[in-house]
Amino acid sequence: MRIVHFSDVHVREDFSFREAPKIGWRRTAALTELKFGGRARDFGDAGGTFRTLVSAMTALKPDHVLFSGDFTALATEKEFSQAREILGDWADSPDRFSAVPGNHDRYTAGSIRARRYERHFGHLLQSDLPDLQTDSGFPFVRFLGNAAAVVGIDTTRLAPLPGLSFGEVRPAELHCLDSLLHSDALQRRHVMLLMHHAPFGPRGRPDTPTHGLWRLARFLEVVRQHPRLTIHCGHIHRRYDLAADATHPRILNPGSGTLHSGPGFYVMELDDTGSLRSVEEVRVPFTV
Ligand SMILES: [Fe+2]
């Protein structure tokens, strides 16, 4: 079975500072970083690179696609619509596409109140084990064949200030995840845990308190109970495959799908037992 995993495409709607009263203080602060902090240059035409990425992954004919958050830059209606349009029929059905939100998809209180992520991608929250799913739609489970499953969790939080982008798993969702990982249905399968925040960075150290996953020890206690689990995350815009050790399972992060330094994704092959047989990096051209 072939699985593609990509992340952090950050489709961006451009604003001018004249629009500040309309777009609110959070997005105005983000605009400063975008225009003067080099972020606009680093991502170029993210929508254009994203289209190339979708073509490249379509050519590989994957059985299932994973996306680990940050479809958007500022969680605007236009950014969500564009991301959905670029994905085309890939995102029509949970049978082919699993996704979780990133902190940029919940950038403002208004975008959360409007349930903007759910309105565009909520149909993908359908779970194969709905009895162990909270009202938020997480965690959701997707069986892949007879030997593997995707479990999606939401680690996003509304940041108290722009620039703070830490996350955590809400206690009710962590409780459900704990029960799921103990269930017969998942004990028999290899579990691919899909989440936005990275529990550990490329060098095997936890991410910083302002950017990383809070309450890490409790989270690790839960996930380490499953014998065959890999973590598939994003948020840190670097591609890395961190081997399991005594403290954590194997962690795979395809990095940003559209960032100038190496836009692309991971393509993985699962064997008959559901375990990862191979992981390869696929690079795509950057669109300025
Ligand atoms: Fe992020």
Structure description:
The structure is a single chain. With 288 residues, the chain is α/β, with parallel strands linked by helices. The chain has a single domain, classed as Purple Acid Phosphatase, chain A, domain 2 (4-Layer Sandwich). 28% of the residues lie in helices and 19% in strands. A 6-stranded mixed sheet has the order 4-5-6-7-9-8, with no helix packed on it. A hairpin with a 3-residue loop joins strand 4 and strand 5. The longest helix has 17 residues, at 20-36. The model has no long low-confidence stretch (mean pLDDT 94). Fe (ii) ion binds at residues 70, 102-104, 165, 196, 235.
* Poorly predicted ranges: none
Largest sheet: 6 strands, mixed
| Distance between the first and last residues' Cα | 34 Å
Structure summary, number of beta strands:
11
Topology order in helix (H) and strand (E) letters: EHHHEHEHHEEHHEHEEEEE
**What is the CATH superfamily classification?**
Metallo-dependent phosphatases
Structural class comes to alpha/beta
Proportion of residues in helical segments: 25-40%
Which molecules other than protein and nucleic acid are bound?
Answer: fe (ii) ion
User: CATH architecture, please?
Assistant: 4-Layer Sandwich
Oligomer: single chain
Total domain units:
1
Strand content: 15-25%
Overall body shape: globular
- Strand line-up in the sheet with most strands: 4-5-6-7-9-8
Which CATH C-level class is it? Alpha Beta
How many helical elements?
9
